[in-house]
Amino acid sequence: EVFLPEEPRAAAPVDFLQELPSYQSALRRRAAAGGTQERRAAPPGSAGLRAAEARGPEQEGGELAARPAREYPLTIAEKRRLRDCQQADIKYISGWKQWKRTSSKSLKKVLNEVRELLSFLELWRHDIHSIEGKFGTGIQSYFSFLRFLVLLNFIIFILMFSFVTLPSIISKYGIFNSSFAKIPPKNIEPHCTVYKPSGNMGLVYFYTYLKDLLSGTGFLEVTSLFYGYYTIDAAWLSILRYNLPLAYLLATFAYLALSLLWIIKRSVEGFKQNLVHDEDQFQSYCNKVFAGWDFCITDPNAAQLKHRSLQYELQTDLEEERLKRKIADRTMKEKLRIYSLRLFINIIVIAVLSGCFYAIYRATVFSQENSNVSIGHDIRTDSIGAANLLVQYLPSIVITLANFIAPQIFSFLIRFEDYSPAFEIRLTLMRCVFVRLANIGVLLFSLWSQISYCATDECKACGYNYELYPCWESEVGQEMYKLMIFDFIIILAGTLFVDFPRKLLVTHCSCKPVQWCGLQEFGISDNVLEIIYGQTICWIGTFFSPLLPAIATIKYFLIFYIKKISLIHTRKPAARPIRASSSNFFFLVVLLIGLVLAFIPLGISIAHIPSSKACGPFRSFNTSWAVVPDTILGFPTGLQQVLHGIASEAFAVPFFMVICLIMFYFIALAGAHKRVVEQLREQLMMVRFDPLFCTPKV
């Protein structure tokens, strides 16, 4: 008898968990899904009680009927009684609350109609839904990701054009009574300011225009496409002074920040969906068996492919379980053998990467030395012009070959490392991501080594190799331009000269070797790596070529239709597709890695390498970043002191400590939520055994 009063205390944690919103929502879902019979068996007064509970929160908060009756997990009769009660209670509330309630409903209705109208204006809405119906959500996620990049590049183009290109054009042509000012660089040697673009003079062949269009030289070099065009220091629009160098730098930071925030926002949404599928093997098996079918599929061939996909996933799960048992039963001798083999294979991988990097470095150095020599000559013959174009495109060709050969080697070597199938795919993809993005870094490093190389005192006075690179920013922009153009040419040529002939051979040739090869699979991951590689080039090149996002927008717009035609007519879906939720999250994570890697060369170019003294908006500054402290010096003294205080260590150290404390708080909060979720999962498993959890507490 002494221990009887302690029983309610033992149930306290359960009562606490039952008060959580997640537990209440689980009860509502359970009641809506399978509680029909219980409601029919309940006493007559229970309906009114549940309706009163549904209205209770609104009445306590002072807002009546904030939620419509259809959103409550009640029967039709109960919803009708609830609606009658809500309408009867309207006469007892004040006029202000009635107007507020009516305005809220009207605004919500208008927003829903606008949202529905905007959905019809969504880019490629019908095409993506058609692809989803024929090939499932996995391939649909790739085309949705491509649409996201089109919109992202279009917004970046609008940003750079509005704040950089448009003011320069308006001021140069005197539109809206505008003017511009060019301030000559001070304390700069005269030979550092000499820049003679390789524009076409006199009679020009059509081939020369085509070569310039492909390489970014000639007539394109003096257009607003490249950095060297923006030589204005200030633009005057009526009485307003527009600081173009500061706007150029801030626009660069703005498009990087916009890309980062947008990707993080979409990544968080994908991460939430990915967490739902991150369960133990038993729950994963149940999800595949009972909820694995994609009801968007309407095509019979796609349905058969989905059957094979589910079968492959189940086989993969069984194979992973077999490998786990095999790993647990390994002897010390077997572990030593497999680890030694993996070490040896990783050494081979490093050797392959080193070979690719060295080949790119040598090709870049050779291309820069020989193409710069050839630019100054008057090229008239087609053979010499073709050789010069080949020399200019040599780094792009070598990078493309490295991006094609290295993944094939990685896919072959991964078979001998004895990993699980899922880990094999992830490791191979990460190696491919690394080789693609690192190749761009090696190209830029090769360019910077040539730009920074100075052997004479005249060169050291300028801070860079002014003889080969009088406007080195435009040279880097041309390399990024050539990489983007060549990448599009490779994608188009692969579809026209590889996929279509292969489709014709498989369709009209009955030879066993041809039928054994079959159609090429539409690999989602490989195609995603292609466009992420191009997007990383766009992020890096936009600083050196402000209109490059417009080219990227057109490129991805055309790639959408190229890939759509290739998918429908010349390729078949992959036999090993990946889930849409995990694929979306993986795409955005790899894209985020590409963006972070783009920060490194841009940061070095802006803050470390001296800016060109013969072209560009930063020719009056030692580096591009120097425009920021120069602008701050024009502020009032009080504001200068505030900004210097924010940039000092006295502010940075406490701010960093506060950020760390906030981060630790959220980490602890996330851990607490995780433990609560685990407890709720345990309660859900105990529902069928413990009557305490079978009925909600009234």
Automatic annotation (TrEMBL):
TMC domain location: 471-581
Coiled coil: none
Segments of this protein annotated with the region Disordered: 27-65
Subcellular location per the Swiss-Prot or TrEMBL entry: Membrane
Keywords from the named record: Membrane, Transmembrane, Transmembrane helix
InterPro entries: TMC, TMC_dom
Topology versus the membrane: Multi-pass membrane protein
Protein name: Transmembrane channel-like protein
Organism: Aptenodytes patagonicus
Gene behind this protein: Tmc7
